[in-house]
């Protein structure tokens, strides 16, 4: 069918976002990863994930227009522009200053993969702990790290996104197997029992999850803006 998973071909654009790459691999977004715009992405997020035009989703699309030369559209590759949305201490990609900031990296991903031991699920507490660990790793290795409120807000949103689209968006609990397939294969784990959330994902569901993840991550800033600190 038209939404079957297909690996991208050599001329198809992909980038640092597993959520959008997955939508393209299933044909909810153009499979070539090009000509993306607000309406194209909002339609795909609704059809693929039952994600309504939540403020972090709309905001991400607005910011992404700045990453492209074309004023009306961008590609999945454009959005890897470092410092636009793309940030350090990602869950599954290397820091820009240390390597490839847009391709899946199993070593980086192992922190998330191995989190919440003894359970078959990830939740907001484990997501926060993973963010704390990933940040500590980047702080130790990356002298050019950017870690301000801006990056922190984006990172918490992305954790809220994977828990919501792969799990129950009301409680923020997602099966490990589904989350791992989503990151590693950029595939909807339909064969494994996943289905699109029956509950719409929107600000009402997302914002409380993001806030809980933020608290659980025990975050402090590093680098940047030090002039403002005593
Ligand atoms: C990163 C999910 C929508 C742009 C991420 C990450 C997740 C995610 C889980 C973290 C990857 C990592 O840390 O390794 C989703 C989901 C979406 C969505 C489920 C729902 C449709 C969007 C939109 C945009 C976007 C609309 C912009 C148009 C990005 C970018 C990154 C990213 C640039 C890289 C940030 C980084 O890790 O450095 N996304 N996303 N995403 N997303 Fe999305
Ligand atoms: Mg990154």
Structural commentary:
There is one protein chain. With 230 residues, the protein is mostly helical. The chain has one domain (18-79, 87-223): Chloroperoxidase-like (Chloroperoxidase), CATH 1.10.489.10. 43% of the residues lie in helices and 2% in strands. It has helices at 18-25, 38-49, 55-64, 106-113, 124-141, 149-166, 176-185, 203-216, and strands at 121-122, 174-175. The chain starts with 17 loop residues before the first helix and ends in a 14-residue tail after the last helix. 44% of the residues are buried. The structure holds protoporphyrin IX containing FE and magnesium ion (MG). Protoporphyrin IX containing FE binds at residues 16-20, 41, 45, 49, 51, 57, 60-61, 64, 79, 85-87, 90-93, 158, 161-162, 165.
Q: What portion of residues is helical?
A: 40-55%
- Residue runs with pLDDT of under 50 for 5 or more positions: 226-230
By CATH, the superfamily comes out as Chloroperoxidase-like
Order of helices and strands: HHHHEHHEHH
Number of helices: 8
Average pLDDT level: 96
- Class from secondary-structure proportions: mainly alpha
Going by CATH, the architecture would be: Orthogonal Bundle
Provide the β-strand percentage band: under 5%
Strand numbers in spatial order across the main sheet: 1-2
């Amino acid at each position: 069918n038209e939404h079957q998973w297909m690996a991208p071909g050599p001329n198809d654009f992909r980038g640092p976002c597993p959520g959008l790459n997955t939508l393209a691999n299933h044909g909810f977004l153009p499979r070539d990863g090009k000509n993306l715009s607000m309406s194209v992405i909002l339609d795909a997020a609704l059809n693929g994930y039952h994600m309504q035009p939540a403020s972090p989703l709309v905001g991400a699309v607005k910011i992404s227009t700045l990453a492209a030369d074309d004023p009306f559209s961008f590609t999945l590759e454009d959005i890897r522009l470092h410092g636009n949305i793309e940030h350090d201490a990602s869950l599954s990609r290397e820091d820009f200053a240390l390597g490839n900031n847009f391709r899946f990296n199993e070593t980086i991903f192992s922190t998330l993969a191995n989190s919440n031991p003894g359970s078959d699920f990830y939740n907001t507490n484990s997501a926060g702990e993973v963010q704390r660990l990933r940040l500590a790793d980047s702080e130790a290795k990356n002298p050019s790290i950017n870690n301000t409120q801006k990056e922190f807000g984006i990172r918490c949103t992305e954790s809220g996104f994977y828990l919501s689209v792969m799990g129950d968006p009301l409680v923020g609990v997602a099966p490990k197997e589904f989350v791992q397939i989503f990151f590693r294969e950029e595939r909807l784990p339909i064969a494994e029992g996943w289905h699109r959330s029956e509950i719409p994902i929107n600000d009402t569901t997302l914002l409380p999850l993001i806030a809980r993840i933020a608290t659980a991550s025990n975050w402090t800033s590093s680098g940047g803006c030090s002039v403002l600190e005593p």
